[in-house]
Amino acid sequence: MLDEFIKTRSRALRDFSSDDILSALGLERRSTAVEAAIPTALAFVAGLAAGAGVALLLAPKSGREVRQDISNRASELTSKASELTGRLASSANELATDVRNALPIGESAPKNADTTRTLGTNRTS
């Protein structure tokens, strides 16, 4: 009889989990950051899948047409960029020519102390 009582009590104790013991004491297990992030990540992935499905169903153009539009737009942007680069290079060349023409050729810099200042010469003795 005592053996039977011990066996039934030991089976009952084996069925207890640590969560059962904690709840009996009025405590609960803390969730880790990963356990808290998993439901959020799953909801995000489900939202992505639902959004992609709705986008495919409601798309006004086929995939081929969209790819062609993207290709055309990329070509337009490339040609505009190369045109802009050419204009900038031309403007830079014109500016360099204007600066060269404005500088005196063969003349030495003036030796006057008022016009030729260097760093550190404004010290008081």
Describe the structure.
- The protein has 4 helices and no strands.
- The protein is 70% helix and 0% strand.
- It has 125 residues and is mainly alpha-helical.
Quick summary of this structure?
With 125 residues, the protein is mainly α.
Tell me the major beta sheet: none
Strand content: under 5%
In sequence order, what are the helices and strands, one letter per element? HHHH
What is the total tally of β strands? 0
What attributes characterize this protein structure?
single chain; 125 residues; mainly alpha; 4 helices; 70% helix
Question: What secondary-structure arrangement, pairings included, does this model have?
Answer:
Blueprint: H1 2-15, H2 18-24, H3 33-58, H4 63-102
